Amino acid sequence: AASVRRFEAKEMDLVYNFSADQIPRLRNAYGDSVHISPSLSTEYYAFDTRAEPYNDVRVRRALSMVIDRDFLAKVIYSGSQLPAHSMVPPGIESYGEPFGADFADMSQLDCLDVAIELMKEAGYGEGGNPLNIEIRYNTNPNHERVATAVADMWKNAFGAKVSLLNLDVASHFAYLQEDGKFNVARAGWVAEYSDAESFLALSVSGNKTFNYGKFNNPRYDALMKQSYTERDPAARSIILHEAEKILMKEQPIAPLLTQAYLWLVSDKVQGWQDNAPNQHLSKFLSVAE
Questions:
Q1: What's any GO biological process attached to this entry (predicted)?
Q2: What pLDDT is attached to residue 213?
Q3: Which of 2, 93, 132, 135 has a CA positioned 20 to 30 A from the CA of residue 264?
Q4: Which domain holds residue 91?
Q5: Which pLDDT score is estimated for 20?
Q6: Tell me, what's the pLDDT at 193?
Q7: Is the distance from CB of 46 to CB of 172 less than 8 angstroms?
Q8: Under a CB-based contact definition with an 8 Å cutoff, are residues 65 and 254 in contact?
Q9: 3-state SS class at 41
Q10: Phi-psi region of 11 (alpha: psi -120 to 50; beta: other; left: phi over 0)
Q11: How far is it, in rounded angstroms, from Cα 63 to Cα 119?
Q12: Cα distance between residue 277 and residue 86, in whole Å
């Protein structure tokens, strides 16, 4: 709060990580000086593809489609997170634009209509088999708010009975990494380096540690293996995009949110560029008098 006041008094030209609840006021006052850019992170829900009904792509797609990610980002996180429809976040220079889910540009109403039909085809929802879902998450107020909101979305769309189970972070991820059975589980990934592989490798069938839902797709595995030995950056990017296309079609994971970087940047600052690694070297910046 103090740094924002100093920015408003023109005593500071850069402010990082201000409170998200100030976004509307600051945007109204300073417009393009408010920078909200994606980080190298993705929060997602994993489906346990070993068991019914989550071994059915129609069920996974339907559940993912009715999640209102804009609501999660804007209402629950006050704009400090961005909606995610791809496993790979935007902003990775070597990768380019991520391959998002094919329903990413559909309205929520259109998504709902298609999702209800998919769920009916799979034999669940109104007039079909009951849909009982447990969402597991690591204890955190925002994770609880997200789970509660998603539970309501699934109840309203499919008449699902949804329960919530939270554990401390160590117990939650230990359970998942020890092959514990589940329905839906919250997970997240923050890359240590700016490369799409960091996110896509999580869903390789041989990844015993982080492929929580045990997704197994031979074509996906083959593409990822091919990407490891491809030395041409452009060709490698094409291979990784093909892999992400499969991942987003199959939806073994439902991307939810990408954490955002919040900056206030004075219009006097020259050379500023938002970037996913959040690196802003002073040698590339200057301040106009």
A1: peptide transport
A2: 98
A3: 93
A4: 39-258
A5: 82
A6: 86
A7: no
A8: no
A9: strand
A10: alpha
A11: 8
A12: 18
Q: Which domain CATH number covers 146? A: 3.10.105.10
Residues of the chain with pLDDT under 50: none
2 part of a folded domain:
no
How far is residue 254's CA from residue 24's CA, in Å, rounded to a whole number? 28
Spell out where 154-232 has E strands.
161-167, 184-190
Task: Give the CA angle between residues 249, 252, 257 to the nearest 5°.
Answer: 90
Q: What pLDDT does 277 receive?
A: 81
**Amino acid identity, position 122:** A
**Length in residues, the chain:** 289
Q: Which pLDDT value is given to residue 232?
A: 97
Q: Omega of the bond prior to 24 within 30 degrees of 0, cis?
A: no
Q: Which of 117, 130, 87 is nearest to 241 (CA)?
A: 87
For residue 129, the cross-strand partners are 124
Number of domains in the chain: 1
Q: How much is the pLDDT for 78?
A: 87
48 within some domain: yes
Q: Does the global pTM surpass 0.85?
A: yes
Q: Cα–Cα distance between 216 and 50 in angstroms, integer?
A: 9
End-to-end CA distance of the chain: 26
Amino acid identity of residue 209, one-letter, is T
